[in-house]
Inverse folding.
């Protein structure tokens, strides 16, 4: 009877051990790993923002280049993935009539521009990087960019003037539109 | 004759021993039988396994476009399992999304499960649960108590994701990619 008891006890213990090992196995049971692929794309950007939409010249002085418009501040911002330079171009859509007063026209060759107090140049160049028109454009700056400067910004003061040296104008209001656009090359 | 008497005695002894042997209790051999059905636990993304924000806006909360639909299935023993938990986590919390040298940490990725625990958008900054997840890069999505009625069950939940760039430095242009892991664990 003692042997019987020992064997029964041994068997019971074994069963208990089997049961307890199963319990441990189910705590901490893990599933497969499912995944979600995430992609967020930041697009390349290039913007030009003037601080004013109007530049005025209150009184034209004939036969002079002392015809300064009110300055305009331009902020150019870029966030790029490629390219070697950012260029800002100004142009008149119709160079022969940069400003007009009825049939009285001032061509783009009489309008000069500069940034940051450099020398004035007329709007008589060709397009840059596809921007602008032949004979009515001016590159205002070219900023080198690279992998360390693909995210950047700069602010420039644009000065504009009329060079009416050797000419006179008919009295009246002359208006026109200067286009400003940046391009990456 | 003497030999014959001895032979008789031996035969008689054998009979006695044989009869005695029948009276002895048989030796009992106990064979314990144990058959354990292993628990089953699986996670499947039925849709939304690829999430793309086409145009990321700086300094703003960007929503991933569609919910991640997750089906979790289990077959466990109630007496041995208290809860089934679903975890979302990034392996490296400091770089949940990566674009070149720019790292977006998991604290900028928020998850919401209306049918789970984070019913409002919550950053993936929690710790692992039951050994599943990463320290500071995890989020427990749900925890369901197990009983007899749901020991063998399945549920489907929607996980909404956001990328919170409010106050984060402007991102250089480019693509930022990462992998969000989903895994269930019993406790």
């Amino acid at each position: 009877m003692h042997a019987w008891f020992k064997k029964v006890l041994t068997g019971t213990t074994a069963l208990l051990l089997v049961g307890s090992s199963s319990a441990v196995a189910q705590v901490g049971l893990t599933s497969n790993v499912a995944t979600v692929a995430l992609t967020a794309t930041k697009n390349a950007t290039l913007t030009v923002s003037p601080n004013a939409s109007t530049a005025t010249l209150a009184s034209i002085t004939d036969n002079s280049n002392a015809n300064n418009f009110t300055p305009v501040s331009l902020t150019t911002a870029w966030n790029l993935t490629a390219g070697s330079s950012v260029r800002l171009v100004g142009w008149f859509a119709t160079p022969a009539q940069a400003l007009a007063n009825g049939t009285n026209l001032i061509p783009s060759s009489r309008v000069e521009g500069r940034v940051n107090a450099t020398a004035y140049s007329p709007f008589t160049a060709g397009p840059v990087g596809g921007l602008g028109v032949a004979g009515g454009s001016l590159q205002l700056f070219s900023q080198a960019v690279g992998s360390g400067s693909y995210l950047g910004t700069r602010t420039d003061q644009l000065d504009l003037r009329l060079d009416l040296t050797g000419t006179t104008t008919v009295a009246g209001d002359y208006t026109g539109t200067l286009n400003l656009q940046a391009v990456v090359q | 004759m003497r030999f014959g008497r001895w032979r008789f005695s031996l035969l008689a002894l054998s009979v006695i021993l044989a009869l005695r042997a029948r009276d002895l209790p048989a030796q009992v051999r106990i064979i314990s039988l144990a058959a354990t059905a292993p628990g089953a636990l699986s996670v499947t993304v039925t849709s939304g396994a690829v999430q793309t924000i086409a145009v990321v806006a700086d300094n703003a909360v960007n929503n991933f476009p569609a919910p991640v639909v997750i089906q979790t299935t289990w077959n466990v023993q109630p007496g041995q399992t208290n809860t089934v938990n679903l975890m979302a986590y990034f392996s490296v919390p400091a770089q949940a999304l990566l674009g070149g040298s720019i790292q977006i940490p998991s604290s900028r990725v928020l998850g919401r499960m209306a049918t789970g625990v984070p019913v409002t958008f919550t950053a993936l900054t929690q710790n692992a649960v039951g050994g599943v997840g990463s320290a500071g890069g995890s989020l427990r999505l749900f925890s369901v108590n197990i009983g007899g009625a749901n020991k063998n069950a399945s549920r489907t939940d929607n996980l909404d994701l956001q990328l919170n760039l409010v106050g984060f430095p402007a991102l250089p242009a480019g693509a930022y990619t990462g992998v969000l892991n989903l895994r269930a664990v019993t406790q």
Summary: The interface with chain B takes residues 4, 7-8, 10-11, 14-15, 18-19, 22-23, 25-45, 79-81, 150-151 of chain A (CB under 8 Å). Chain A has a mean pLDDT of 90. The longest helix of chain A spans residues 2-26. Residues 45-184 of chain A form a domain with the Immunoglobulin-like fold (CATH 2.60.40.1090).
